[in-house]
Amino acid sequence: MTRLDFMQGNVASAEGAIAAGCRFFGGYPITPSTEIAERMAARLPRVGGTFIQMEDEIASIAAVIGASWTGMKAMTATSGPGFSLMLENLGFAVMTETPLVVVDIQRGGPSTGQPTMSSQGDMLQCRYGSHGDIATIALAPASVQEMYDLTVKAFNLAERFRCPAFVMADEIVGHMRERIEIPGSVEVAKRRPLEPGRLPFAAGPDLVPGFPSFGRGYRVHVTGLTHDERGYPATNDEAVHAALVERLVTKVESSRREIADYEVMNPDADVVIVCYGAPARTVLQLAAEQAGPPVGVLRFRVVWPFPEHALGEFPNAEAFIVPEQNMGQLAREIERHTSLPVVPVPKLGGDLHTPGELARVVEEVRRR
Amino acid sequence: MTFETWLRADRLPHIWCSGCSNGTILNCTLTAVDDLGLDPDRTVFVGGIGCSSRSVGYVATDSLHTTHGRALAFATGVKLADPTLNVLVFTGDGDLAAIGGNHFIHSCRRNIDLTVVCMNNLIYGMTGGQGSPTTPPGALSTTTPYGASEPAFDLAQLAVAAGANYVARWTSYHVRELERAIRAGIETPGLSFIEVRASCPTNYGRRNRLRDVTDQIEIFRTRSMLKAKYDRLVAAGSPVPPDAIVVGEFVRRANPVMGVPP
Predict the structure, then answer these.
(1) A59–B56: do the CB atoms touch at under 8 Å?
(2) What ranges make up the beta strands (E) of B133-179?
């Protein structure tokens, strides 16, 4: 039965994780994500799960990967500096096709930056931070409700595609308190086991192999080295390396329409604001209250793989305006997929854009 | 024990140089797990990066070959998620004591139920012979061309101080003692750390007048001193040879542990 509650975004993310079947959390305290670890420390032992505070973020994500290989759903939560530390092992998770979830409550960077202030500065780090070529699944909640819903969804996508899934939230949605409807049950993806007779890293037509959990007699070898379908190192074989990396990228990128999740308002509009995460709240207010011709809104709940086809939902569009709490990280991606003008509206420092600021940009773009 | 029970025949030959003792240490470890009757389907080997860590790829159990220095952190996740699994870790001096030093001390502090076998060959072998945290002062390596100038870590003492329940040191010459130590380590709940002095003629020996394969083994044979004798000498104020390799059991205790089935 659906239950109404009033809670913080970070707490809602932890509750969503537990509803999605997460039973392992390895983490390290970092503002502004710590409440997720604190909630998991309190909740997991009561549902038969395991919480451990590791010695750093490198160890946290390593423990999460290790736990996932026993067949358990596992996650960590962090913010920019910790996310940077996790990158090497996140590449390992991609290479070994380990399902897991990372919640990144973004804060101002670079470096220690603004620990208590909001940012969307890690959107390219999660996409391109690993060495080598990877595909990324990243979700961007804009409310406490979505902290819950998209954390559930991240677990399901991680299982479906056997890869890390990122909840790229920010300090504002992480620390905000709002009304939330907690569903009585949620749709939960189960881990699909390796089919009998199939090699452990041999994929079928969907490019995603079944999972050979540890301790079940598969006797699988798992390595971050380039490996063949048996899982054995084949580091000097060009063809094996190319086929492996292409499959790891294609299994996600070729499913971008399946993964895509976005909201469209005023599809006939001439000017469209493209947004995700906390800045979307300002955009929605502007769209609701603005006098004059309606402004289009395209709000992404999934940012990576980038749902480029969504730009086509606005046949009359003459320009895209992109307010972000960074210097234009997603704006650059949008430019790659349209010949129309793309106007980034960067906002640094931690505050949201005001509706007035965005209204002025809309007017200015219309005058051009 | 049969070869096929514990080794992946289709992964051989291995990558180790002639004269490397990693194969001996792997063999001792597999003898120990087999003697104890561990179920290969319920046993997981975890390694980091380096010659030693490559061992996990030759073992016919579930095996996790991870990132440099992080084997213990990965193993912590495996063991906590399923404490009924037997989890063993292969690592080396660079992997464990340099890049993985933080995970080493915290795993010992947690006293998590893992058995860690460290092949300490005093050098980074896989990358071609650079100095490691256990390279003795004065020893030559590609990054200490005028002799190592830093003091070396005593890994066994470090594990004792950090809280491991079982700590022993042997060399690849002492195969029976090593098998027994690994058995004792597996049987002792909590973190068990077995340091094994290993030979690397290719990248340590040839720069340090130990070019012949047998030279390093001879040092292990002649310079090893039992911990009990070492302690007696120290207590009596008698001189101890500075190049003695102190071998034997350093600690066996029953402090509270983590990662065992409830």
Answers:
(1) no
(2) 166-171
- Report the DSSP beta bridge partners of residue B89: B46, B116
The helix/strand/coil state of B116 is: strand
Amino acid at A22: C
Maximum C-alpha span of chain A: 68
Question: Of A70, A74, A219, which has the smallest distance from its Cβ to B60's Cβ?
Answer: A219
> CA A119 to CA A315: how far, in whole Å?
31
Chain B residue with CA closest to A26: the answer is B77
> How big is chain B, counted in residues?
262
What domains, with CATH codes, occur in chain B? 21-252 (3.40.50.970)
Residues of chain A with pLDDT under 70: none
Q: Given an 8 Å threshold on Cβ–Cβ distance, is A63 in contact with B73?
A: yes
Q: Which of A22, A55, A213 to mutate to test the interface with B (most CBs of B within 10 A)?
A: A55
Which residue in B6, B12, B38, B76 has the most chain A C-beta atoms within 10 A of its own C-beta, making it the best mutation to test that interface?
B76
> pLDDT category, B82, cuts 50, 70, 90?
very high
Q: Is B4 on the interface with A (CB under 8 A)?
A: no
Task: Domains for chain A: give ranges and CATH numbers.
Answer: 1-259 (3.40.50.970), 262-367 (3.40.50.920)
On the question of a cis peptide bond just before residue B136, with omega within 30 degrees of 0, the verdict is no
Whether ipTM tops 0.85, in short, is yes
Backbone φ and ψ for B61, nearest 5 degrees, come out as -120, 180
Cα B206 from chain centre: 22
Dihedrals phi, psi of B70, to nearest 5 degrees? -105, 10
pLDDT digits over B128-153, tens only? Answer: 999 999 999 999 999 999 999 999 99
Put simply, whether the predicted model's pTM sits higher than 0.90 gets the answer yes
- Residue among B14, B39, B74, B109 with most chain A CBs within 10 A, to mutate: B74
pLDDT tens for A22-67 read: 999 999 999 999 999 999 999 999 999 999 999 999 999 999 999 9
Q: Quick: pLDDT tens for B20-75.
A: 999 999 999 999 999 999 999 999 999 999 999 999 999 999 999 999 999 999 99
Return the half-sphere exposure (C-beta side, CA atoms, 13 A cut-off) of residue B138.
3
What residues 13-52 of chain B have any CB closer than 8 A to a CB of chain A? Answer: 40-42, 44, 46
